[in-house]
From TrEMBL:
Recorded coiled-coil stretches: none
Stretch forming the signal peptide: none
Pfam families in the record: adh_short_C2
PROSITE patterns noted in UniProt: ADH_SHORT
Organism for this UniProt entry: Corynebacterium guangdongense
Source organism, top-level taxon: Bacteria
Protein name as catalogued: NAD(P)-dependent dehydrogenase (Short-subunit alcohol dehydrogenase family)
InterPro entries according to UniProt: NAD(P)-bd_dom_sf (IPR036291), Sc_DH/Rdtase_CS (IPR020904), SDR_fam (IPR002347)
Record family assignment: Belongs to the short-chain dehydrogenases/reductases (SDR) family.
Length: 247
């Protein structure tokens, strides 16, 4: 059990990659706190509690400082300390050419996918510094490394998460507080499942590995970064993308 005795906050743990991370971390002995805007997180947490894993859900909006501060406070109050943050909450965008950009849609994606990560890091780092360190994993994307036509705010936000991660890692490099990010390729989550079959087919064709990734495969990489097995790694962006960015 690589996370035995550790407390982990996972944002966006109600579905997809975040839910897979919550399940894997719990199996590895962590106490789980899921912060999500969707009450679907209740059933994810209930399944952990039913399996005798310490877990709780707090309704959370990562764009709100007071909501995120409360999430970290509750984790500390309930489980005594905070060791791991996975800043995973995110939303996709409506693809549009820049000359037709809708600034309201742009701002929503920036608020959740970028500012939400910064706010989550802010309040988690405070708790971790108080207990002598920790591990933060931010969820980026292949679109933080390569471009894609008609992607605007999502590409901008994810690229910013990659460099935010590097700078934040350097800030805390001597505080035993490691900060890394994971950049998934296309993962089999509701986000992709709900696309038309033709679009799904085109996406799979673009994956060198010839298939979509499973949320559990991303969770494995996040577990590595959360655990002491990655003690030499900070400021890294690990591409879990089936070869997408190798082309
Ligand atoms: N699925 C993919 O192919 C893929 C690829 C690369 C990166 N990612 C990234 O992985 C992360 C998880 O994506 P997923 O595919 O599991 O999506 P998902 O939609 O299954 O999960 C995202 C979760 O974030 C939550 N969320 C949204 N807005 C929130 C807010 N304001 N506050 C708190 N929670 C909020 C949602 O309720 C949801 O539970 C995202 O950051 C996404 O950008 C996904």
């Amino acid at each position: 059990m690589t996370l035995k005795g550790r407390t982990a906050v996972i944002t966006g743990g109600a579905s997809g990659i975040g839910a897979a991370i919550a399940r894997l971390f719990a199996a590895e002995g962590a106490r789980i706190v899921v912060g999500d805007i969707s009450s679907a997180a209740e059933s994810v947490v209930q399944s952990l509690v039913d399996a005798d894993r310490p877990a709780l859900y707090l309704p959370t909006d990562v764009t709100s400082e007071s909501s995120v501060a409360e999430l970290m406070d509750v984790a500390e109050e309930k489980f005594g300390r905070l060791d791991v943050l996975v800043a995973n909450a995110g939303v996709p965008e409506e693809k549009t050419p820049i000359h037709e950009l809708d600034l309201v849609a742009w701002q929503r994606v920036i608020d959740i996918d970028l500012t939400g990560v910064a706010i989550s890091n802010k309040y988690a780092a405070r708790k971790m510094l108080a207990v002598g360190g920790g591990s933060i994993i931010n969820m980026a994307s292949i679109l933080g490394h390569v471009g894609q036509a008609n992607s605007t705010a999502y590409s901008a936000a994810k690229a910013a998460v990659v460099n935010f991660t590097r700078s934040t890692a350097l800030t805390y490099a001597q505080d035993n507080l490691r900060v890394n990010c994971v950049s998934p390729g296309y993962v089999n989550t509701p986000l992709i499942e709900n696309l038309p079959a033709e679009t799904r087919g085109r996406i799979i064709e673009r994956m060198p590995i010839g298939r979509l990734l499973e949320p559990e495969e991303i969770a494995d990489v996040v577990l590595f970064l959360a655990s002491d097995a990655s003690s030499s790694i900070t400021g890294a962006a690990i591409n879990a993308d089936g070869g997408y960015t190798a082309i």
